[in-house]
Amino acid sequence: MLEKMEILDVEKLVGDFEVMTKDAENVQRQTLKMILEENGCAEYLQNMGLNGRTDPESFKACVPLVTHKDLESYIQRVADGAFSPILTRKPITTISLSSGTTQGKPKFVPFNDELMETTLQIYRTSFAFRNREFPIENGRALQFIYSSKQIKTKGGLFAGTATSNVFRNSQFRKAMKAMQSECCSPDEVIFGPDFHQSLYCHLLCGLIFHEEIRLVSSTFAYSIVLAFRTFEQVWEELCDDIREGVLTSRITFPSVRSAMAKLLKPNPELADLIEKKCSGLSNWYGLIPELFPNPYLKKLRHYAADVPLISADYGSSEGWIGANINPSLPPESATYAVLPNIGYFEFIPLKENVEEHMQDNGNVSFLSMEPKPVDLTEVRVGEEYEVIITNFGGLYRYKLGDVVKVMGFHNSTPELKFVCRRNVMLAINIDKSTEQDLQLAVEEAAKLIAKEKLEVIDFSSNVDVSTDPGHYVIFWEISGEVSDEVLTECCNCLDRSFVDGGYVSSRKVDAIGPLELRVVRRGTFQKILDHYLGLGAALSQFKTPRCVGPANNKILQILCDNVTKNYFSTAF
Q: Which of 21, 73, 386, 537 could serve as 348's disulfide partner, Cβ 3.0–4.6 Å?
């Protein structure tokens, strides 16, 4: 009876969400009021002159839009152990570290119990809608999750990646169990000091519990792809471990070995079954349903075959935004309905600028200014915006840097599609090519090598302004050898596939030089991952940096040092 009581009531969760989103405007006002009443005594808000007011109009009139740089000194004082309320009334006891893959170094972000609760609310909401579409019985989850090392700040606060702070929280495993998604790996594996060893053990645990696995998940798709690429290399060793009931010597940490020893017993029948299934696969297509017959669930789809792929929720180190309530849509089309009670949201319209047309003695002049932010319920379908969040963790009118597109509304709350990071952009002249533009160009050009049953393992880009004119550089790591003829055509295809009007017109008049494709050695992007892990990042939060700017000089050096071939476009 107790076990049944712990299972989440899916219909109640969905019902509560429906009620809340039908009155999103009022919920937003109430949420802002709660945040300001709770933290109005904090130094940051005291300095803004709100004087106890909690309405959106006063809030926006008094509190400016900010970036992380504007808050850095406040957050640093919190990390240094300042006693007085600085950003929140309650003391901040934990600091989250962003992944650092965008700006080249991690940022400090406050983390508290209220943010943990919003994290669990997002998880529960996405689970409720997912479970209605793809019902799962009580089982386990193969979760490729990893914790980074926790450090202590000068003031004695624990600091770790945002995902690590979530995984270490006592509520996490309890919540996963209630969602029938308890991780099949012991904590010693999740919190292991070496991600290579943890990854191997995650795979081994998944195989041991293969009949109970209902869900294969990770924070980012990258972690799942990396896991199954690793599986291709170590599956025979995994079979040996299962057959003999003895863990490989590659696992060296005593705590991890001890935890795995409790799970690993000799099972030659299972080893034979896995060996048979792996031997029968063609190029590893359909690996996941072969190994795990009971899960709901471009390279990831290759492994998954017909198993549903779902992008569950949308958030960042700074806070959560929305949940996927349409789980039947493929990840490429995923949208996220904003939960109006987890923070106060504003959106800056992303038109190039607002031009105020002014007449002065018969002459026309233009004043360029950033558009005024609009509220959650005021966004328009089809338009793109930058997200601004105010949350319970001490961030007020914080420019997240994410660009989203409004795809529709669920009741009165918008459904957003992530487009790109606003500051991740290739630009030389009047061009502005986004991360999405880059992704689409790579996908189009990669079709040419797919004909030879090869793939782009990973990619990145850079703007090279050491030449005159400057030009785009695309780095590819490829799964095998490709002829110069095909790679030259790939280079031309990449160049033609950037459709930004500024780029095309600049190329035609040679204001931007021919695109350059640089092929790097196998393992180059693994070196980039190792670099970030060496800085204390967690694999759970790693995203390959798609555009390497000046702040990421070390990454650019790794890429350039491993170039084996390069090609220049003749498309224009």
A: 386
